[in-house]
What does this fold into?
Amino acid sequence: MLRIENLHVEYAQIPALRGVDMDINTGEIVALIGANGAGKSTTLKAISGLIKPSAGTIEFAGRSLADLVPEQLVELGIIHVPEGRRVFPRLTVEENLKVGSYALRARGGEKEARERVYTLFPRLAERRRQAGGSLSGGEQQMLAFGRAMMAKPVLLLLDEPSLGLAPILVEEVARAIDRFHDDGATILLVEQNAELALGLASRGFVIETGRIVLTDTAPNLLKNPNVWASYLGREDWEVVDERHRAPAPSS
Ligand SMILES: Nc1ncnc2c1ncn2[C@@H]1O[C@H](COP(=O)(O)OP(=O)(O)OP(=O)(O)O)[C@@H](O)[C@H]1O
Ligand SMILES: [Mg+2]
It folds into this structure.
């Protein structure tokens, strides 16, 4: 569904992506993991048209995205939930959800979509008249998700959805991601929380200083010491590995 080849992005002539190749199949959840500054958010921004690559190609359902503006990408169902839960602080919860559905509204079904969001996140229903900016961090994340849901994503780009959330809310985020997936969305998930991302994904890509250095199934990445020690700079990989090791077969 999504094919990225040799993608290069520069910020003021300084390279951020240096030849990224990625392939995502319809219906997959794929994780993109890597250290701070590796180029994860930049990759998502290039896909959703927020920044223009200096070289390389991005194809979605066999069609090049090069000449499309972000609004056209939204029409195609490419929905980006950026880092840091961008909700409109002065708009109410309900108004925030309406913004997400502007592409959908022309086709009707806004009310049903909104009720679905409220069923999934009852806290948002209780606070539908409250200003977005007065919600707690976790509630704002739910609202950012709800807004994405209103746009009926075909390809959902999630940037650090668990960042700064308490463990119980991280579980809620994981459930919401599963829900998007059940609804048929293909998902590219960027996470510092690699265990969370690889727990949800079937495959993963590891990015280091603007290049994909490793790709494998999620279970293989979870038990690959290089991923934790070299690429993510974590010294606790043995603990991580232990947690995910399959129980020894009983003979
Ligand atoms: N607007 C910008 N202007 C200049 N440099 C930028 C800009 N945005 C990102 N960069 C640089 O590009 C590189 C990749 O940044 P990016 O935000 O993609 O990293 P990331 O993998 O998402 O990191 P993090 O895990 O910290 O969110 C970094 O070196 C960063 O400093
Ligand atoms: Mg980032």
